């Protein structure tokens, strides 16, 4: 299912408001993705990105499959997020190894999710701690 963007010149929004962004390495494609996120989701994306950047000095970013990914080791990714209708879904690829474990399970035993809804509630300290923990674990090769 596809939708239309808030801006006729901007990226197309896929189901749930997920921006269709060309794949690319670095901060630029991630910032393009965040800028294209609709409404309140854009603020959530900015906060996620800001916290990740402030927490992990060696942060690497990329967009693939219309999803921003974050990591600290070349070719390995620890976290990503994308838009769904009612929340922004944050994926921790080794989330089952984090303490405390992020709240939402997955069909993949190691993956755990955090859902950030329109209220924008995101515990910055806990999120930063999960990022630090995840950065010490092996990343996912995508």
Automatic annotation (TrEMBL):
Protein name: DUF1801 domain-containing protein
Limits of the YdhG-like domain: 41-134
InterPro entries according to UniProt: YdhG-like
Residue numbers spanned by region Disordered: 1-28
Taxonomic superkingdom: Bacteria
Gene3D superfamilies to which the protein is assigned, alphabetical: 3.90.1150.200
């Amino acid at each position: 299912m596809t939708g239309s963007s808030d801006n006729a010149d901007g990226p197309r929004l896929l189901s749930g408001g997920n921006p269709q962004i060309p794949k690319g390495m670095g901060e630029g494609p991630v910032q393009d993705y965040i800028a294209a996120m609709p409404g309140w989701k854009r603020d959530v994306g900015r906060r996620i990105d800001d916290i990740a950047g402030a927490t992990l000095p060696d942060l690497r970013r990329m967009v693939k499959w219309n999803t921003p990914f974050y990591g600290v080791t070349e070719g390995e990714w620890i976290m990503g997020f994308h838009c769904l209708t009612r929340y922004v879904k944050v994926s921790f690829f080794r989330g089952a190894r984090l303490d405390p474990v992020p709240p939402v399970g997955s069909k993949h035993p190691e993956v755990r999710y955090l859902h950030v809804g329109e209220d924008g509630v995101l515990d910055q300290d806990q999120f930063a701690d999960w990022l630090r923990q995840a950065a010490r674990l092996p990343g996912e090769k995508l």
